Amino acid sequence: MPLTLILNQLRYKQWADQRTLAAIAQIDAQAFPAELAFARQQLNHMVRVEEVFRARLAGTAEPHCTTNSDIVPTLAELEQRLSAANGWLQPYAAALPAEQLGEIIRFRFLDGKAGSMTRAEILFHLVNHGSYHRGAIGRALDMAGGLRPADTYTVFIHAMEPARRVEG
């Protein structure tokens, strides 16, 4: 996978995460407590997985032994941690020599099973994993009054490059 595509996917992830966070912040906590709790739980899982894979990419100790926690952080904390993850991923990928994209990283999944992925696969996994959980959050946003933002890659790429809307 070319580095330019990976970088664009990571920009997309950051953009989509920000749109989702803004929509979650609009949930009326009094009227839709279950939907807000579900959205926060999904964000918590996303953040924890990103923090674990970030440590694997950096070769540092993994910060979590589970993909969820008993106590779900506040939305503000989750937003800060997700923003920090996105803020780390893009410069990391941009500075990564092309020959290291295919480097295999061996690790243990948090369930104890062995795993290995290339650096490029890990970066793709984080983009894809976020998309999956933003989709689940989208259902909660629908239930909480139709707050779901349009966050597909096609919306992103045309927002970032309006010239693509010009008919040929």
Automatic annotation (TrEMBL):
Binding site for a divalent metal cation: H45, H129, H133
GO molecular function: metal ion binding
Keyword Metal-binding included in the entry's annotation: yes
Keywords: Metal-binding
The keyword Metal-binding belongs to this UniProt entry's keyword annotation: yes
InterPro entries per the UniProt record, alphabetical: DinB, DinB/YfiT-like
Listed Pfam families: DinB
The family this protein is said to belong to: Belongs to the DinB family.
PANTHER family cross-referenced by the UniProt entry: PROTEIN DINB (PTHR37302:SF1), SLR1116 PROTEIN (PTHR37302)
Protein name, per record: Putative damage-inducible protein DinB
